[in-house]
Design brief:
Blueprint lengths: L2 E9 L2 E6 L16 H16 L4 E3 L19 E8 L2 H14 L4 H6 L5 E11 L3 E17 L2 E11 L2 H28 L6 H6 L2 H12 L5 H11 L5 H23 L7 E3 L2 E3 L4 H11 L19
Antiparallel strand pairs: 1-2, 1-4, 3-6, 4-5, 5-6, 6-7, 7-8, 8-9
Helix pairs in contact: 1-9, 2-9, 4-8, 6-7, 7-8
């Protein structure tokens, strides 16, 4: 699966640039600090986001998100578009999924068979509450187009997401991850590493809940500790403690499913019309392109010493 073209807007030192008609081998030539590495970094940003398998996700690598915006201006639009080859097997899989979801659009679905390219446009946002995150603004079967300062997709549009909806999707993701962290903490508690069950059972029932915060600080959120304390307070055996923790884990798993299925207040534009959640075919497509392995050898800059100078 190759890259056909790239368009970059507002990323690091690149105000507006791109690579058209990419081939199997592409060579970037330019002076120092001309932006060659930033072109590669923009492509990597898209590829790493696709690996997350979601429409919206966090910044994929540890870096200062504000520094990714041109001139450090987080209010300026940051968008990166990449046009890929569309392999026949992914084309077939996509049409099969769309046929199940929207059989009444059979004629439009059949037109997808004629295309051999697929385009994503990734947008970046720096939010005061949630920090930096990325979301797929557009995805289409077809070409990536550039019109001055704007980039778009030209073909059969499968998904369009606005910034407010991207923010909602990322908020749902962060809520689910917080719950997943609670499960990890509870499983660690269940292992006895934080507080052995025998030690709990030796304590008076009225003191057990008060002990938990001392041993679970940093691993469980206060509200999770409070509920756990209520459950272990009446336990009379190690098995009852394990049952109580497993019950709490099961309840959190139910909450995660509810959060992941939570509808957005705003609407996404999907293949079959407006939607309040990410279409299954969209996340499948993101996962397919994100599964492609790639190698990016980064430069490493180090300060030179007296001898090197």
């Amino acid at each position: 699966m190759g890259i056909r073209s790239v368009q970059i807007r507002g990323f690091r030192s690149i105000a507006a640039s791109g690579l058209d008609k990419c081939g199997a081998l592409n060579i970037l030539i330019g002076k120092n600090n001309a932006g060659k590495s930033n072109v590669l970094a923009a492509i990597e940003l898209v590829l790493l986001h696709l690996k997350q398998g979601r429409v919206a996700g966090g910044w994929p690598v540890a870096r200062r998100p504000k520094g990714e915006f041109i001139d450090g201006n987080e209010k300026a639009p940051l968008r990166v578009g990449v046009e890929f080859d569309l392999p026949a097997d992914i084309n077939d899989g996509l049409r099969a999924r769309l046929t199940k979801e929207a059989p009444h659009l059979e004629r439009s679905i059949e037109q997808i068979k004629m295309h051999d390219t697929f385009a994503f446009i990734l947008a970046a946002v720096l939010d005061d509450d949630l920090g930096g995150f990325l979301f797929i603004e557009q995805m289409s079967v077809g070409k990536l187009t550039s019109k001055g300062e704007d980039i778009a997709t030209d073909g059969i549009r499968l998904l369009s997401v606005t910034k407010p909806v991207g923010l909602e999707l990322y908020g749902n993701l962060m809520s689910a991850r917080a719950l997943e962290s609670d499960i990890e903490g509870l499983r660690e508690f269940l292992s006895g590493h934080l507080l052995p069950p025998d030690f709990i059972l030796q304590q008076p029932k009225e003191r057990r809940a008060a002990l938990l915060p001392q041993y679970t600080s940093g691993r469980l959120r206060p509200e999770v500790v409070r509920l756990l304390g209520q459950r272990v307070a009446s336990a009379t055996s190690k098995e009852e403690i394990e049952s109580a923790v497993n019950q709490q884990i099961a309840e959190i798993l139910d909450k995660i499913q509810a959060v992941e299925k939570r509808e957005t207040e705003g609407t996404l534009s999907a293949f079959a019309g407006d939607s309040k959640s990410s279409p299954a075919y969209a996340e499948w497509l993101i996962g397919q392109f994100g599964a492609v392995p790639f190698l990016h050898i980064k430069e490493r800059k180090e300060e030179i010493g007296r001898e090197e100078a």
